[in-house]
Amino acid sequence: MSAFSARTDFPRTWNALARALAERRARGLPLLDLTETNPTRVGLPAPELASLAHPGALGYAPEPQGLLSAREAVAAHLATRGAHVSPAHLLLSASTSESYGWLFKLLCEPGDNVLIPAPSYPLFEYLTRLEGVETRTYRLPRAHGFGLDVEEVAAARDARTRAVLVVNPGNPTGHFLREGELEALGRLCAEAGLALVSDEVFSDFAWDEDPGRVPTVAGRELPMLTFSLSGLSKVAGLPGLKLGWMHVGGPDALRDEALARLELVADTYLSVNTPVQLALPGLLAHAPRFQVALLERVKENRRLLLQARPRDARWDVVPAHGGWSAVLRIPLEPGEEAMCLALLDEGVGVQPGYFYDFSGGAFLVLSLLPPPDVFARAMEPLVRVLATSG
Ligand SMILES: Cc1ncc(COP(=O)(O)O)c(C=O)c1O
Q1: How many separate domains does the chain show?
Q2: Which ligand 1 atom sits closest to the C-alpha of 171?
Q3: CA 232 to ligand 1 centroid distance, Å
Q4: Model pTM?
Q5: Are 77 and 225 in a shared domain?
Q6: Can you give the three-state secondary structure of the chain, one letter per residue?
Q7: Does the Cβ of 389 fall within 6 Å of ligand 1?
Q8: Residue 120 alpha carbon, nearest atom of ligand 1
Q9: Is residue 374 situated within a structural domain?
Q10: Pocket lining: 97 vs ligand 1, CB cutoff 6 Å
């Protein structure tokens, strides 16, 4: 018998790609790193940090939901996105990841499951398993441009399903939830008693205008319990400050019960530090500057990628509408990992699609955050190595 819980028994062996990357770094070889998604490492504007030295920062008067002044700042931020919400329906946490953990505690008995999209962000397996919760996958069909197909969601469900997770826009697929999809999802969730957990960390990063998309479920009249998640890590490019938020919505009685229970969960940890809560209005006031610079960066790098693609290439840039990544569909041979290793040999780091549970083809994922001179230098070896595939 193990001394440890099965839910912390994660595989810890490195895959060939991680080993090759570490080896390359250890040998001091140059790397054009198109896997870099940390916004603090790519030369984007950072805010003044003087506000973290607020005179009240050493005080401690914890409010489980988060300081009212901080929740008011989040409500004001959401209002600029057209979502009018009450601070009473907001809850602060240390990160979106922590918010997920609290929601799984709130919604699931051990052994219950939540529906997760594929392809998507790879952390869900960990976040759920640590709470004793299982996942069932619904596919985002490529034929829908990796958009949501409610039939797939309905088919993935079983008697122990408690919630549907959507990532809006998808990471790394950059596809926004659409009004019709939300309506269909609302019907399904209301009928089956499922909550909707909407991860909106990238929703401020749309590349184009489209009135048919849903930027957030916060502040919407919906027939099911809804949780809309975001935080400073993406909205202001400040993952190190550790502040996330969730908006709780849905039918009044369900919403209020959820808030009361979440308040208890939050009170058990009180994990959000006071200085960052006091500084939040100033940090959110900085967010537009960061977002404008990031969007300019992402669009320029995407333009470089589209421009570098030869007309007769056997690979494509998958259409998308937002986020921080580009997805390439590549020929099946020699395979995603072999292609990543071949690119690494030429000094270019990219991620294989299987990291994000893509299926129905071979894919590569490129971060669009690196400085354009780095991104531009990666284009020649990328195009050359991809020309050998298929
Ligand atoms: C879709 C998505 N949700 C949540 C997170 C985690 O955000 P946080 O830093 O707030 O935990 C990430 C981080 O990359 C993400 O891509």
Answers
A1: 2
A2: 1
A3: 10
A4: 0.97
A5: yes
A6: CCCCCHHHCCCCCCCHHHHHHHHHHHCCCCCEECCCCCHHHCCCCCCCCHHHHCHHHHCCCCCCCCCHHHHHHHHHHHHCCCCCCCHHHEEEECCHHHHHHHHHHHHCCCCCEEEEEECCCCCHHHHHHCCCCEEEEEECCHHHCCCCCHHHHHHHCCCCEEEEEEECCCCCCCCCCEHHHHHHHHHHHHHHCCEEEEECCCCCCECCCCCCECCCCCCCCCCCCEEEEEEHHHHCCCHHHCCEEEEEECCHHHHHHHHHHHHHHHHHHCCCCHHHHHHHHHHHHHHHHHHHHHHHHHHHHHHHHHHHCCCCCCCEECCCCECCEEEEEECCCCCHHHHHHHHHHCCEECEEHHHHCCCCCEEEEEECCCCHHHHHHHHHHHHHHHCCCC
A7: no
A8: 1
A9: yes
A10: yes
